[in-house]
What does this fold into?
Amino acid sequence: MATVTGSIGVLNRIRMPKTVGFSKSQRKFDCKRSASFAAATIAGTAASVSVEVPELNSTLEKNGKSSEYSDTLFNLACPICYKPFASRGDPQVTLASTIGSGVECYTCKKLYFQNETYLDLTIASGFEEYSETMPATTEIFRNPLVPFLYERGWRQSFILDGFPGPEREFKMAQNYLKPATGGTLVDASCGSGLFSRLFARSGMYSHVVALDFSENMLRQCHEYIKQENIPKENLILVRADISRLPFVSNSIDGVHAGAALHCWPSPSAAVAEISRILRPGGIFVATTYIYDFIAVPVFRALREFYIRATSNHLYISERELEDLCRACGLVGFKCVRNGPFVMISASKPVC
Ligand SMILES: C[S@@+](CC[C@H](N)C(=O)[O-])C[C@H]1O[C@@H](n2cnc3c(N)ncnc32)[C@H](O)[C@@H]1O
It folds into this structure.
């Protein structure tokens, strides 16, 4: 989707998507830090806007550079209080995020850091003393070797379990993601961005958020984006925990999660979060591994043992997946299977 850019000097680029085709829930901007914030709502036509954000300008000048990615904050929210970084009251939002500084939650007063690669919206962002280890299925992807290997054979090996291969998988996902066309798509647990890059390149979404917990996966994603010259205007890289998604409730048009559900520490907490952030009519599409022998009690017991030992929810049945979506308030469950591979979709009901 087209975006228009207003600029002040060399730095303060504020991108304003056309009203038509942007996220269906329009965000607004909190003027506290921007006495002279000016914005235009553009009805159907592209236009350039100039904005003055004095405080941010000085931060930008101090730091000397801004992120190359979209600096729009649109539907992003503080993962502690879920209040938007940009609040209701003004026309379409935006706030330049800057390397070395970050964004501050007006309510919690917490500063979330941004480096040249991603915006860190984990609760742990800024912890100095306290540290927390995630389950192994999350931690393993933080190891630098895994992102390096991931698209150099690791991901391709999923074909052995019935995954159709990235190109076909992308087309299947896009088909399910039609309700998100023109809106904001979150590629949750994007890894090295295999699908985020394809989504961004497709031009089908006003914004693509490549989101993962692993810093190294996001760095690898950034490398591929550079190598492949993927347009960055509608792309943002965010570090976040799937169980604490940094988005405003009812604001996201689509969430895609490729081969990740079985890696999440709590699939129910994750799907509940996905359900929270989806707008009514918004769509969730995911791929994972499915094993129906779980219906047999002995295997179910063994599975419980396996999950407790590994935190890996690899062995999940179709009925369980449907139940998971329904329990989290999603409807219209669909699935396509090929051996252990499954692609599911479900949407947030329109009230
Ligand atoms: C197998 S990779 C999938 C990558 C990509 N989506 C794909 O289709 O190939 C699983 C991803 O889930 C991410 N992940 C694991 N736990 C997570 C969590 N708690 N929050 C967010 N992402 C998580 C990992 O960092 C990893 O990148």
Summary: The chain has two domains: 1-116, 136-347. Residues 249 and 277 are 4 Å apart (CA to CA). Residues 1-66, 87-99 have pLDDT under 50 and may be disordered.
